Please model this.
Amino acid sequence: MDTQTFDIVVIGSGPGGEGATMQATKLGKSVATVERFAKIGGGCTHWGTIPSKALRHAIYQTTSIVNNKLFRDAGISATLSFPDLRRSAASVIEKQVEMRLGFYERNGVPIFHGQARFRDPRTIEVCDQHGGRRELRAAAFILATGARPYRPPDIDFSHARVFDSDTILNLDHTPRSITIYGAGVLGCEYASMFRNLGVKVNLVNTRQKLLEFLDDEIIDALSYHLRDRGAIIRHGECYERVEPQDDGVVVYLKSAKQLKTDVLLWAAGRTGNTDDMDLEAIGIAPNHRGQIDVNEHFQTVIPHIYAVGDVIGPPALASAAYVQGRYAAQHLILGSCDRALISDIPTGIYTSPEISSLGKTERELTAAGVPYEVGHSMFKHLARAQITGQTVGMLKLLFHRETLRILGIHCFGANASEIIHIGQAIMSQPGEQNSLRYFLNSTFNYPTMAEAYRVAALNGYNRVS
Model:
């Protein structure tokens, strides 16, 4: 069997694997990447973040035409089907793969395609789809194998009307109705998308609130706008059984409700991609969700084997996976890494409207006894929002009453995932440089959405001055 030796082998080429590979290469190490699939990029590029966000944008463009009076008066309409809209992502995926492949080629990183299995803590065997086998030895490994949708064994995912968040992108028609089981980030995002297409949506939430990790005011705003759009949200429900039929799917809930819709999207839980890697043979035992336990530096129980990204569980964000990969590689090579790299990672949730947050929530600050105050800016009062017609939403700043230090930033509305980064830059500053005063004393272009920071700062400062 052909054997090759490297300083580091990275398993997985999604955001976490890419971040680790590029950081290790820049630090002068010989690195190889192993990827199970025919093309690099991982689930993020091929059936997760990129295609779903491209689909969301295509839906937004279509609904903008449908709802715009100017287009209606001109007799312009748009009635594209789900598959038509889905195809808009194909060119984006192709460009992403080509760009990322260039990173590996320019840095001289070989990519081995196939399933990686550990033979001992320093050796893996890579088996390709044609039966070929290759042995790779390394001083260290970084596991970035990602995760996939959790599939309960009692649900028939082979049925043509039953989907998970990976397979829903292959839907070959626009359904009239859909039940989405699971109201996490993916469930809420798809509820927004399908409702914007005019599909009747049942969103089944096993908890009592949507996205409980968010600030309560943002949760309330999201719930209100989903319902205002016509989505039915069912909190505190659990399924008893799922019955696929020729003309739809019936979800029987433990509360005795029966939900029959054209299709079912199962969006409850994720499973780490750790099977078929023989991890147990070297002493690494994934939990019941296939996730790998790591310490604060992303080391597994074997110190020279690290794990990053979705395979270690929350926050399960592409952005977090990338910086975790960079951190792990630097810690592995240099023995230390600045914790700032992985602290205060913003959330980006692509519902309609978007949600983004950073730092503490009011609930957390209240529980900790921190004397904070709130500054609001409602988008409906901003000239730029009035011009674009995207007036739904707000920016919320949480700051310390005495020091004016920014403690949390919460945004709900169009382009929230972009707007958050202005506050992030100030919040990350040391000492007194992190202060509400920056927004009070800075001049923002007018009209812009960034002006929301000045408005929110003034609103909050008026409460303490």
